Amino acid sequence: MKNTEVDFNEALKQLKEIVAKLENPELSLEDGLKLIEEGINLHKLCKEKLDKAQIRITKLFEEKAE
Amino acid sequence: MEDCLSVTQVNTLAKQVLEEYSVWIKGEVSGCSPDKYYYKYFKLKDELSAIDCVFPASKLLGLGFSIEDGITIKAFGKLSIFERDGRFQFKVEILEKDGVGDLQARIEEIKQRLQKEGLLDEARKRKLPLIPKKIGVITSKDSAAWKDFFKILQERYPNVEILLYDVLVQGDKSAKDVIKAMKYLNTIDDLDFIVITRGGGSLEDLMAFNDEQLAREAAQSRHPIVSAIGHEKDISVLDLVADLRASTPSNAAELIAPHKDALYQGLDVVLSRMQTWANNRIAVCNLNMSNTIARSDIVDVHRFTKRFLDELLSLSGKMASNKRIYESYGYQLSEIQYKFQSYSKNLVPQYITSLVDTKEKFRCASEDLIQEYTHILEKIGTHIELRNPLQILEKGYSIVKDSQGNIIKSVKSLKKGSELETQFSDGSVKSNILDITIS
Lengths: 66, 439
Fold this sequence. Notes:
The complex is a heterodimer. In chain A, 59% of the residues lie in helices and 9% in strands. By secondary structure, chain A is mainly alpha-helical. The longest helix of chain A has 24 residues, at 29-52. Chain B has a five-stranded mixed β-barrel. Chain B has a five-stranded parallel β-sheet with strand order 7-6-8-9-10, with helices on both faces. In chain B, strands 11-12-13 form a three-stranded antiparallel β-sheet, with no helix packed on it. Chain B contains twelve helices and 13 strands. Chain B folds into four domains: 7-100, CATH 2.40.50.140; 106-258, Rossmann fold; 272-387; 392-432, no CATH class. Strand 1 of chain A pairs parallel with strand 7 (161-166) of chain B, so a sheet runs across the interface.
């Protein structure tokens, strides 16, 4: 996995934070639009991650002989 | 070759020999078949060995107890061979109960010991993260349990990384294997939890997961433990110690992660929340915009334009009919036009900056204006054409140019003695300036 990629869980967390921030009635239109732009990118990223997801397996084997 | 026996002959012979003996056998029941057949099949076991038993189902009701895995019984019957398969078996005729099975008793002992130490307390159980990223799975890589677990997880939530630790899930070495695997997986920092799973089997098969040492290791595991051992009804000691108990391997895959569909739905909810927010804000802005328009200069601009347009129309009407009047208004006309242009030039950026969010509405509004302005300018253009210089010349006017052919608009640019060319509708004359008077 590339380290530069935003992690799905992290993206989801950020999305939740954005929605929480949008609940604030004091939020300015400009800041709100910035949040939404960010949110739409995160939303897209999360969807793509889910669409493409495959279980990644690393096999570890017990040495049969003690 | 005549000495050679057929398989059937051997089995029949062996059966005859064995069936001469009737014996009592004491052992623990395991691997019971359901009650629905003519015969009840089960095994009798002790620490080291097992023997297949068969008991007529018709005698079950008369027993006064049911034959279940884990109970210890005394059975009387004949040793025999099932001829078709050559399988050694014990044909049970009489059954007596002999208290709770040794294995079961041992398990019970372990449970009580762990309970006293508080290792089975609900309060000890840790919560799993809602969405796992990296998990350890301890199982046999060839088992149905692993296949089921993997299949269900792949369907539900494939966005995970699995460290699959292959172990023996049956036999004496099994508990040690699992402990070793747990110890290893606990050295990995970013693991969310460890799933220990195997499919169903007899009590003996599952004994590794009743191992006290294994249970203690699970209790002190750094990462939470999810156990999924056997079927719904099998509850191992490990199940009791684990942070989360799943009834089957498939059930484990269901419990440890959300379904991706739920996540898709969640994402849609987030998206629609953002849309709602934007829509609400745009609605508010539209309202503000309408209010602003209602009381702002834009209406003045509009009104101004209308008045201007009317003036222009009446002007042009007059111009068309009377060029003298046109000429006297000509300057005023361009003055008005200039003023109007600079007025709207100042206004437009002002509105653009103040009403970014309601750009669209503003665009519509200003488009209307611009259309009207264009219309006006077109009208002006038409009237400019109407004042074609040639037409003017025919009406008695002439055009005066200097020697370079520039039209002379002011006497100030002229010098005494310089050459002039005067153009009439039907020709031109050249002349010299005799005198200049500035009025």
